[in-house]
Ribonuclease R (Rhizobium lemnae), 759 residues
Amino acid sequence: MGDPNVIVHGVVPPRDILLQFISDNPDRASKREIAKAFGLKGDTRVELKDVLRDLEDEGLLQKSRKALMRPGGLPPRTVLDITTRSKDGELIARPAEWPDDGGVAPAVLIRQSSDNRSKSKTPAAGLGDRVLAKIFPNKDRSGPAYTARVVKIVDKHRNASLGVIRMMPEGGARLMPIDRRGEEMQISASDLGDAKDGDLIEADVLRGNRFGLTRAKVLSVVGSVASEKAISMIAIYSHGIPHIFPKQVLDEAEDAKHASMTKREDWRHVPLVTIDPADAKDHDDAVYAEPDPSPDNPDGIIVTVAIADVSYYVKTGSPLDREALQRGNSVYFPDRVVPMLPERISNNLCSLREGEDRPALAVRMVFSKDGKKAGHTFHRIMMKSAAKLSYQQAQAAIDGKPDDKSKPLLDPILKPLWHAYAIMKRGRDRRQPLELDMPERKILLKPDGTVDKVVIPERLDAHKLIEEMMIQANVAAAETLEKQRQPLIYRVHDAPSLAKQEILREFLAMLGIPMAKGGQVRANSFNGILAKAEDTPHQVMVNEMVLRSQSQAVYSPDNLGHFGLNLMKYAHFTSPIRRYADLIVHRALVRALGLGEGGLSPEEETQLDDIAAEISTFERRAMAAERETINRLIAHHLAERVGQEFEGRVSGVTKAGLFVTLPTYGADGFVPVSTLGSDYFVYDEARQALIGERHGLGYQLGDSVDVRLAEAIPLAGALRFEMLSEGQKMGVAMRSFHKSGRRGRSAPKRPGTRPPRRR
């Protein structure tokens, strides 16, 4: 291997030196910085781009925003949880969120600055803190893979823990952690309060002796661990989601006064309406549409989208602002919402309530009759919602079944909105965003918090109308800020990596569906694949695989475009009550357009990289918490049905076994490969299948199967199934893709084996 310290300027270095440089310099791993480091210009920059793309194709590099990194590595800036100390007393952290299929999260050694002359102010972090950190490779091979310098403390350790009480025969109790990284603690009888065996409790962590278990004291009893009402609290605590507003934040919210008309246009005469889920408590957005009277735009339309003016109430650096950034977004569970902002702000002052004056930022968009946007303008306004409608209510009125409330709105408001959507849809159809058919399931609870049923809500034109109008408003925000040369945070979605494209191509080849090789793939390329699979037995399977091939959308101050929506410029603008990214975009618009107070500060501009890294992490945190809660609820619901048989579908294939989804419940369970039979099963990655080596019978992604529920563990959200269906004839497994295999029933099983963690 070449010496990465030897840089020959003006010449593209060998691949091994490039890889070493990227590993050693994660903060300088963009194509521009690499070219600068090696003195590359002109044609050599093009050559560098080709070499880096080859390394991506081979899976030796992956893209993180505009930077490159080694697979499984950490980005240059990320959010860490400080979880423990090394034997030398140094702080050790791990990524706050890490994908289930990413293996063990890497350990990170927190650097403590010992140089008093250092100009950088490194915050003094401690055990239990959540921090934003700059990441460096650790050159000490005997220690963790990375070191980190703390940029700022995101959340101080609140000295509280969640766990399950286990009473001890000798008196007192143990607190059993609900987080696999948590520690067992000791609770004396005098510190138990009203807690009983099996209760899920919140505990105050006490200072203990140097040796033995840490001591704790019961603060509150959340409820019986057997209760569904405790399940969302487990996710809240295990992911460190702030859920209690500090007093100063609540005080600031209570002291807030209604917005004045200063530097606002009076739009209270415009009949804007909100269209939301029937149970919505806060209303971010309102819409209105009308014909364009301009003779230069025959049969054109004007669409107005008004968004709650949160930036007026949540000022940069205020307690409200700091708490909102710590949360990043609202988190939605079947039994509760953990809001980003206190109720006084989110459900009252900023919510676009029917018949009440409310401040808003509005965008007025003009479209030609063929759906092309001719222009747009932003306005800071005072509005008064003409009506609050549900999706079902608005759709029923359009379908000829208006109720007393929607009937008078049908001709003047609803029909023009649907006409506008028909025109905008022409533009959407021409743009051809990715059209995956992946229906969402919703858990409905009974009054006592137990699961009632799982439903797939009907996808109405009313949903699509609001979605398209919000997308266009988001595009308008990004375009305006770029034109004003105002820094912002984009919502970016990169194209699928070439490595993932190759896996998808090989899989589709097994089904006889061609996929072009090389070149710049576009969203409509995938739509063609989905169309070929429609109404075939492979439809669900192909949709799953196309989804898995996609990159993850993130927030970034660098614009990479949005691949899935097939848009060059895109920013989140339409939900500032529940997303911090949208609040940043609102502040940027206020500043760039001179719309009054509440604009983006110069200090915030310099922090956009850090803010984007934080809120991207918090978004993943919310998604994981929501998913785990649903898994636990379903596992709890099915815990008394162990031994029953269910119809399922293979939703995931690994060398360790099969994931099977029960469509009725939307729940995933695992079938260990060791229970599939006496054959030797080989994992065929191209086919996404496990295939018996001797008999050629196997199971493939998308297969319909019958399973028996063997075990349910509600706390872990885990289900384990036994396969009842015989495998299908699949021929010889393609071992070149993955040579790992597992024995079937002939292999001895370990007693007491728990179901594996969900993907």
Observations:
- The longest helix spans residues 608-638.
